[in-house]
Amino acid sequence: MSYRDTGLTIWRTRIAQDFANIFKAFIGTNYLTVSFAFKESGLLLGLIGIAFIVLATAHCCNMIVKCKREVVARIVTNPSSLTGYVSSRLRSISESELERTISYGEVARAVLGRLGSILTTVGLFVTQFGFCVSYFIFIADTLGRVHRYVCVQQNEA
CB–CB of 79/67 below 8 Å? Predict the structure, then answer.
């Protein structure tokens, strides 16, 4: 097996793991919270809210991709213009490698400087923390219901 085969396998594995994490984080949390949001807001306002969230998410994702492409193009065409904003590692690799390896934090640092990198890290932390909290609430509610059911069954016996 060549190094290239190993690299491709690792890359495919990483893509699969990233997809699974994103799927669990966004889709899983949505299944836990969207029904409650619809219950509280009603059908019409719930649909309007979902449509707004979909449009905002799609717009922001497109902006992130465009921003990444612009940063990659600037690094490739004039690497010295971003000295101090991007690491020397990024300025020394090929464009195709750069497209695959540049992170959110590195794009934010290239665009907004150190503050952008900090804001991105804090934003990702808050988002992941929120997902964890919603899962803990779901698990606590579920275990509470199971515990009550088991206690009732034991008392009736």
Answer: no
Query: Within 10 Å of residue 135's Cβ, how many Cβ atoms?
Result: 15
SS3 86: strand
DSSP bridge pairs for 86: 83
Instruction: Please tell me whether the overall predicted TM-score, pTM, comes out greater than 0.85 for this model.
Output: no
Radius of gyration (Cα) for the chain, nearest Å? 22
- Residue predicted with more confidence, 47 or 131: 47
Q: Which amino acid, one-letter code, is at 69?
A: R
| Whole-number Å distance between alpha carbons of 27 and 48 | 19
Q: How confident is the model at residue 86, as a pLDDT?
A: 64
35 confidence band (pLDDT: 50, 70, 90): confident
Domain boundaries, the chain: 3-156
Separation between Cα atoms, residue 134 and residue 25, nearest integer Å: 10
CA distance linking residue 134 with residue 70, whole number of Å: 35
* CA 21 from centroid of its chain's CA atoms: 8
Helix (H) or strand (E) holding 104: helix 104-112
- How long is the chain? 157
**Strand pairing partners for 83?**
86
CB–CB of 135/29 below 8 Å? yes
